[in-house]
């Protein structure tokens, strides 16, 4: 599932994509007259930007296989197993 950032902080807008708007760039550098600033991203920021690639979000072939299996009755959903997994996750988080 892809979650899009809707930050209201103008300094954070565009950071994940590795770019900043000219106005934010000029505001950050203190210049406002035609000069352009370059933004150098840290390796962590570049990694986060790569994770933002929409092609890697969903494996459509697997999604279709699961849909087909559900529709044909081959894949059975076990609610108690899902509940047990959720409870185990919560227990791990509370440790």
UniProtKB/TrEMBL annotation:
Location of region: Disordered: 1-41
Signal peptide positions (record): none
Annotated Low complexity bias: 21-38
Top-level taxon of origin: Bacteria
UniProt keyword list: Bacterial flagellum biogenesis, Cell projection, Cilium, Flagellum, Repressor, Transcription, Transcription regulation
InterPro entries linked: Anti-sigma-28_factor_FlgM_sf, FlgM, FlgM_C
Pfam families linked: FlgM (PF04316)
Residue intervals of the Anti-sigma-28 factor FlgM C-terminal domain: 39-87
Biased composition (Polar residues): 1-11
SUPFAM superfamilies: Anti-sigma factor FlgM (SSF101498)
Family as reported in the entry's similarity comment: Belongs to the FlgM family.
Functional summary from the UniProt entry: Responsible for the coupling of flagellin expression to flagellar assembly by preventing expression of the flagellin genes when a component of the middle class of proteins is defective. It negatively regulates flagellar genes by inhibiting the activity of FliA by directly binding to FliA.
Protein name: Negative regulator of flagellin synthesis
Species annotation: Castellaniella daejeonensis
Gene designation per UniProt: flgM
